[in-house]
Amino acid sequence: MAGTADQQLGAADVNSAAIDKRQVAASFSRAAGTYDQVAELQRKVGNNLLSRLPEAEQLSQLADIGCGTGYFTRALAERFGLPVLGLDIAEGMLRYARDRSPAALGWVAADAESLPLRSASQDLLFSSLALQWCPQLPLALSEGYRVLRPGGCMAFNTLVEGTLGELRAAWQAVDGFVHVNRFMPLAQLQAMLAAAGFARWHCEVEAHVLHYGQVSELTHELKALGAHNLNAGRPSGLTGRARLRALTTAYESQRQTAGLPATYQVAQVLLFKGIDQA
Ligand SMILES: C[S@@+](CC[C@H](N)C(=O)[O-])C[C@H]1O[C@@H](n2cnc3c(N)ncnc32)[C@H](O)[C@@H]1O
User: Fold this and answer.
1) How far apart are the CA of 222 and the centre of ligand 1, in A?
2) What would the pLDDT profile of 157-195 be if each residue is shown by its tens digit?
3) What is the pTM of this model?
4) Is the CB of 130 within 6 Å of ligand 1?
5) What is the DSSP letter of 108?
6) Which architecture does CATH list for 5-163+181-211+265-272?
7) Domain definitions of the chain by residue range
8) Which residue from 77, 81, 133 is spatially nearest to 107, judged by alpha carbons?
9) Cα of 261 to ligand 1 centre, how many Å?
10) Ligand 1 in reach of 117 Cβ (< 6 A)
């Protein structure tokens, strides 16, 4: 059957077919040494999530899922005055985080979709810009629910449809391949949140638009973050010069006074397990 890889995979059901976790882990491990230098947006949206956390008096067990270089793991430890457990699928990220953090913090290789934590053991789960890498977000949500104590909170943010839409559109004008990670529609995320079993939840979307002088600045930044395209259907081999020129031309048509725009649609989510929920 003809059609682009995008069409063949189907738009909404994306992640389940498309993300290879070993590649995700390898890509983020490779990016551990460069991530912090280019993670300005990641800091901003993670700080926005931190500022949304409920004031809690009696916390004892906290975990940061997809902790990366450990920036927010350390921030959580400082804010709550407690050791925090950093979990990540990328061993390279964990090594980098461990080397730069107080010894009291713990670091464990773990998949958000299958947490190595006891049921009802955590008071607060935090996760910034990691769960968009889960092939099956409902699994990560049910794991979050399982490991939270009654009354606990899972706070995460993730990217939704519209993110890197300009880059996607520019590539679409060049060829039909999947060059940009897919992000689920907001309505699909909301349906997953509603089905996850929590007593209550909030979800709010923030749009952030970054600007770049050249397309290559954006693509290099995505690589330094470890967040370049890892979907099935991406073209293999080197990107030819001719195609990069075509990409540049296509992206240029979207140029604004401030530069080439790159939009991030960030859903900030809080999920609360009821005190009577097992
Ligand atoms: C964009 S980084 C964010 C790191 C950190 N939370 C921050 O805000 O700086 C995404 C992180 O999620 C991790 N990750 C991706 N898929 C994961 C999974 N299934 N389970 C746990 N961690 C995962 C990656 O290895 C990477 O370190």
Assistant:
1) 14
2) 999 999 999 999 998 888 877 778 889 999 999 999 999
3) 0.91
4) yes
5) E
6) 3-Layer(aba) Sandwich (3.40)
7) 5-163+181-211+265-272
8) 77
9) 24
10) no
